[in-house]
Write the structure tokens for this entry.
Amino acid sequence: MPQGSSRVRAQRIALAVGACALVVVVVWLDVATGVWEDLVIISGIAAGLLMFFLTVLVLDRVMARNAARRWAPVTRIAYSEFLHVLADEETSDISLGEIVARSLPAVNTESPGTEAPTGELEHLRRLVVDERNRLANVLSRWAPFLASSGENEKVLGRIGSIAWQLDVVRDASLEAERDWSEVTRSRLHQEVKSANGHLAALVEELTAGLHR
């Protein structure tokens, strides 16, 4: 299980334990001491806290799960459309669940000399712009729905990270073109690698979402 998921699960368990403990304390004080009859203000605060915990732990989660189940068919359509945009057409078969993310090409940063491979860098930037436009077009259609139906925050967050990383790759390629030094070459290589990692992670997340 990913570290982020484990942390969220631990937080939910801690909240559940805290809510149960609060209920036990409230009921015990009422039965054993009748303190709430004497401390009206404090009893009101305790009731408010109890309702808050029950809303966060029970009502919100039940409503979110119900919404996710109700809109699951539409969510799958949205995920499929993103996958069609991201998949490498030559190596993927979406109908069979065999999906390989399209990736940015690695620029030859080991080439000798001080002249930047201008053609490769321009080609990379064109691909970056195309990739970003594809994502933006699909996102503009589906973002309102995904943000309001079910637990799609992780997918939307990954898409935002990819858009940012693509901009970083573009900036790194421009910097490398101006100054073809070891530092700029290394940065460009790492940023392209990071962008491809983000793309692969998004495809994995979307694929998993289709089978939930």
In short: Residues 40-70 form the longest helix (31 residues). The helical segments are 3-32, 35-38, 40-70, 72-86, 118-148, 153-178, 182-210.
